[in-house]
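We emphasize that the prediction below concerns an isolated chain of 410 residues; any contacts that depend on oligomerization or on bound cofactors are therefore not represented. The input was used exactly as deposited, without trimming of termini.
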Amino acid sequence: MGSNSKSPIIFTFVCILLSFVLLVDSVPINETRFRPVEELKKLRRVRARLKKINKPSVKTIQSDDGDFIDCVISHLQPAFDHPMLRGQRPLEPPLERPKGHNSSDESFETIQLWAESGELCPKGTIPIRRTTEEDVLRASSLRRFGRKIRGRVRHDTMSGGHEHAVAFVNGDQYYGAKASLNVWTPAVTDAYEFSLSQLWVISGSFGNDLNTIEAGWQVSPELYGDGYPRFFTYWTTDAYQTTGCYNLLCSGFVQTNNRIAIGAAISPRSTYNGKQFDIAIMIWKDPKHGHWWLQFGSGMLIGYWPSFLFSHLQRQASMVQFGGEIVNSRSRGYHTSTQMGSGHFASEGFGKASYFRNLQVVDWDNSLLPLRNLHLSADNPNCYDIKAGRNNVWGNYIYYGGPGRNAGCQ
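Result of the prediction step, given as a token string:
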């Protein structure tokens, strides 16, 4: 009787134990069954995106830094995927540059790493840095790939961990800007941080209608997978929400030049207490057609942003900025050691600190003018600072930058 009464208890216990084992066993089976499906879906989305970005090329040049530069027929570049450009061809460069433009003081020595081999893209094509699966997978999300995070133009306060040291003018109508800035290789200490130096041409409020056009150099391990300073462009018409992108990673900017690859590494770079290398950048609005043109170096026109991309910038800009920006993610619980510019403070001056020289704006009459009422702003001067000056050779200039984390910057 006693042994019979125990049998149901033992049977029940065994059933419960088996159920538990089966339940535990089923978890990893389901996970391994579903995870590859999700990964395959993501990979398919990534490859579809790459197909839109990477156009068929007539020639490919490999750079010493590992980049592949594809020579793409100019009217097949990503810009012409835009509904308002489909079936068209790039415009001829404007005949008239801003009055007062003088290329005699611009550097001829700075080129891009991929071009050091002497190979160039044929006439009628443009060089495009090939985007890889690894480039896309490094992004925080496929939707955000090639885009900036909101809050990357300084107005009154730091936003989202972005810190600036900038000079700016506002309160007037601006039709462009020009400056020369020296190129460095600042250390970026976190994979999702960056360090850049650029010109901003801005219009609209600092709300959701913000329009910007931007160009300069940046170090961005997330975007490029390395620590090289690279020539870059950016645009947005809704404060970085859904419009715009870096370089040629979406339809928008129309490139016309076959010698410069946007997004490619700049070489050579400046060294501390050594030789300085700078690049000249000018952005201006062509009075005839209203498009915003980009000039790089000694008079090379790179291409243009069609005016229809914008709302406020269809007319003119209301602010121009020059300077540096970093992201401070505080991923280790304290201020980042990511450097801005050379990684040295403005007070160290020439050969040690980063600079912008010959700062100018373009007025309503398509004339380049020196700056009036220049304002300086450093979000966190113990980490990165800025100072301005003026002389007969450099006109308006600024020194800016810093090391990030130090005894005064925690």
